[in-house]
Write a structure and sequence with these properties.
With 268 residues, the chain is mainly β. Helix content is 0%, strand content 47%. The protein is built from no helices and 24 strands. It has strands spanning 3-8, 13-18, 23-28, 40-45, 51-55, 60-64, 70-74, 87-92, 98-102, 107-111, 117-121, 134-137, 143-147, 152-156, 162-166, 179-184, 190-194, 199-203, 209-213, 225-230, 236-240, 244-248, 254-258, 263-267. The strands form 6 sheets. The protein has a 4-stranded antiparallel beta sheet with strand order 3-2-1-24, with no helix packed on it. A hairpin with a 5-residue loop joins strand 10 (107-111) and strand 11 (117-121).
């Protein structure tokens, strides 16, 4: 049984939902105290299966258990190492490090599992200035960035060296308009949720286009997809701010919708 962990920006909470769409619980609420959120946007699970939440308007990262119990937080508003300006997306690598898209600081930051700063990624150098929205890692811990403001996807090595990028602004195959969600399946394929083109595109690791689904011609078309993840069987889950969570099979075939207001992040 999988559970979907979602974030609702209208009521500023996180929720847990079973695979059959059965509601389990919600927790959080508007505020800046421990366990409360202001615009939660990204969510993932750490190695303890605790939730790691990008609390974007509080400019911090929250760690909470799946029953809503507060564990820890780190970060504050600013531009120094370990500080944030609207962190939107995040993920955890195989070493338990937390990787954060520090969106309005135009960089990615890496932290230890307990929140100690490790390094920055993409704040200078060959990739140019990032405008990141979300991040994920592949099975080699390479860091893959949905570079929303530059309408592309960038890949960095685990230690932060720039490897490649693909995509440019547009609506054709392999082009993007505001890619906001990114994840990697078990075969190393990269899945990208585009808010501007209202679709998901799938690519091989080198950026070769494979397929798209959820566009205007698709019966299960998206309205504004933002978060995306896969489960252990490569089933795809997409949070759409106007449609709820959409589930697809690995080939992009639509399965079902979990209706909910303005969801941003999703993980399983």
């Amino acid at each position: 049984m999988w559970r979907s962990l979602v974030q609702d920006r209208i009521v500023q909470r996180c929720g847990v939902v079973k695979h059959n769409a059965e509601f389990v619980r919600m927790f959080g609420g508007w505020g800046s105290a421990d366990g409360y959120f202001r615009c939660p946007t990204g969510v993932c699970l750490d190695r303890n299966h605790d939730l790691v939440v990008a609390d974007s308007s509080n400019h911090r990262i929250h760690v909470v258990r799946q029953d809503g119990t507060f564990v820890r937080k780190f970060g504050r508003e600013g531009g120094a190492h370990g500080e944030f300006h609207a962190p939107f997306g995040l993920c955890v690598n195989s070493d338990g490090q937390i990787i954060v898209a520090d969106t309005l600081n135009n960089r990615v930051q890496v932290f230890s599992c307990d929140g100690a700063f490790v390094r920055t990624v993409g704040d200078s150098g060959e990739a140019g200035q990032l405008r990141p929205w979300s991040v994920c890692v592949d099975d080699c811990d390479n860091i893959i960035v949905a570079d929303c403001g530059n309408h592309r996807v960038c890949t960095f090595s685990a230690d932060g060296a720039f490897l490649r990028h693909f995509g440019t602004i547009g609506s054709g195959a392999g082009e993007f308009k505001h890619p906001r969600g990114v994840c990697v399946d078990s075969r190393g394929n990269i899945l990208v949720a585009e808010s501007g083109n209202h679709r998901v595109q799938q690519f091989r690791a080198d950026g070769t286009f494979v397929r798209e689904f959820g566009s205007a011609t698709d019966p299960a078309r998206f309205k504004e997809p933002r978060g995306i993840c896969v489960d252990g069987a490569d089933n795809i889950f997409v949070s759409d701010t106007r449609c709820g969570i959409r589930q697809f099979r690995p080939d992009g075939t639509f399965v079902r919708t979990l209706e909910s207001p303005e969801l941003w992040g999703v993980c399983v």
